[in-house]
Fold this protein.
Amino acid sequence: MAGLAVSGTQVSYIGQDCREIPEHLGRDCGRFAKRLDLSFNLLRSLEGLSAFGSLEELILDNNLLGNDLVLPGLPRLHTLSLNKNQITDLEHLLDHLAEVTPALEYLSLLGNVACPNELVSLEKDEDDYKRYRCFVLHKLPNLKFLDARKVTRQEREEALVRGAFMKVVKAEVSSDRAAASPECHYTPLPSASRELTSHRGVLGKCHYVYYGKNSEGNRFIRDDQL
């Protein structure tokens, strides 16, 4: 089969632009595969993965997997790589992994919005990434590696104490308010001048109050001239 590479218990089906796991892949390789690499495809669903019940390593980098990702029960899986997908809901993913992959020791989420670092946003920094690691280890305390970094004893201890408080909560904007003002940014300019495509001048009024304080000219004005 074109694109399929098998070496012992290792199965690779990389860069085939498949949107779902081919049925014949599970039928032909599911019984013996311990390592499955489906990187660089267009996967949005993992339906069909249940045929690979003996998996120990699963590589799903560079796909289109999102928050609706569902894994079957994989009791032997110790390595899961989900780099560069479309996952944004970290807590939902971690709760799911805790349930279906109890032996998981290595997890990588680099390149997802759920993993806050400079790969996904220049607004994120090392502190954001540390909080993320602390929260992940709180949810999955058996991890030995997270992303490309080994889990330290200090991180593990901090996760026990503070991990539950490291969840990032986004402020919600009501739908009515968002619909009425989708781009409501502050500007000091009058409302008539806010349209970028309008080049008309805007006339405004200002009211000045003169107190004469610190004015050098007042030295030469007599009281009867005021």
In short: The first helix runs from residue 23 to 29.
